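User: Hi! I'm working on a homework problem where we have to compare a predicted structure to a textbook description. Could you give me the structure for the chain below?
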Amino acid sequence: MPPSPAPLVIRRFVPHEWPAYREIRLRSLADSPDAFGSTLAAEQAYGPDTWERRLAKAEVSGIDCPLAAELDGRLVGLIWAKVDAGDASLVNLFQMWVAPEARGRGVAAALLHAALQWARERDARAVRLGVNCANGAALRLYARAGFLDTGVREPMRPDSGLVEQTMLLALKPAVA
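Assistant: Happy to help. Predicted structure tokens:
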């Protein structure tokens, strides 16, 4: 009988893992350039100190939650949850990506679930994200999780024909 594959693990990135974070972030931008507001070229230009600083700040900020997905002992996905700068009751999601070899195995749903759990623990009222209007798989994932289209459409980045829609998940009713 073959050994069982290692289970799916969702965990926080820690500062000393900046090389692994950099590697998977750059891989995500190379694999899915139309899924992000940033570009591979822009982030390849960041020096090691930028990557390390991102994770070091996240560890102590109290408003950032960079999550890693490991499947079969390999890093296969990420998502970054961050409390909104202008509204502490709102959490924004960024950088959601799953490696092609891990798609269809529940990794995206597990990453999303963990980010939403972190938002709930922070007592967030809602979670917001932007998604490429042409990314059907992502739109379906977010809709299954209860996110609703807000009707807001914006260019994903300057000088691009890509359009992003904003989606929102209410975690609790707004206080009047």
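For your comparison, note the following. Residues 9-170 form a domain with the Aminopeptidase fold (CATH 3.40.630.30). The mean pLDDT is 93. Good luck with the assignment!
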